[in-house]
């Protein structure tokens, strides 16, 4: 397939470009600077501009953009930036998919869509929950409307917490555990929807290559774990003991609503659609996923 990817320089995008090319796909990368390589095409989402010819002969567009949600405090301005960085590019790409008749549009979203589900297991049929992240994800997915209305196969990639040696969740937690400061967060009973980077890009490729898949797809590992279970597994993977738990009140005091949603909300998300379609997970359990990431 000939595939256009937006957000190709991020953690997931970088790995996905390599993965798809190894599988024989022709990948073009959208960049917001002047193109400097044969596989690059320029675009300016706020201006609604994409280089002419970008979608000639293209079979699918994959949209992975968006600023980080945990690297800065959630001020009013930052919340707007989080929204705009997702909604504007998605709307521009959805319109382009519709205009040029691209058959498939795979667009980013996140398990934050479900809000706090506590211990209740949720699959792709569950409604969106409450909270800032749930609102953003619902708006993000709705921004694909023009592509859906044009008849494109639209896949909504609800990504969990990605485990990778190059960053993501481990980029935040690994240094703490190495310094003997890693402990469970709050009660530790809240579920954390993890996914290895291998299965993140593997799941995206599977959705790309499987015509029967459309709508929301949970990109999470097949075995849900609580924060306490993840903490224990990470401590074992890095060869460090767990430390004193971080109280929930301290997380709320220091992190505000961001700390509440990012660290204390529980999401027991299951990858029902991937499993029903026959996707074979490379990492079935949190321990093997963490060992692979930490050992990389």
Automatic annotation (TrEMBL):
Pfam families (UniProt xref): DUF1731, Epimerase
The record's annotation in InterPro entries points to:
DUF1731, Epimerase_deHydtase, NAD(P)-bd_dom_sf, SDR39U1
Domain NAD-dependent epimerase/dehydratase, by residue range, is 3-212
Q: Where is the DUF1731 domain?
A: 246-292
The lineage's top-level taxon is Bacteria
Identify the NCBIfam families for this entry: yfcH
What protein family does this chain belong to? Belongs to the NAD(P)-dependent epimerase/dehydratase family. SDR39U1 subfamily.
The protein's name: TIGR01777 family protein
Q: What is the source species?
A: Pseudonocardia petroleophila
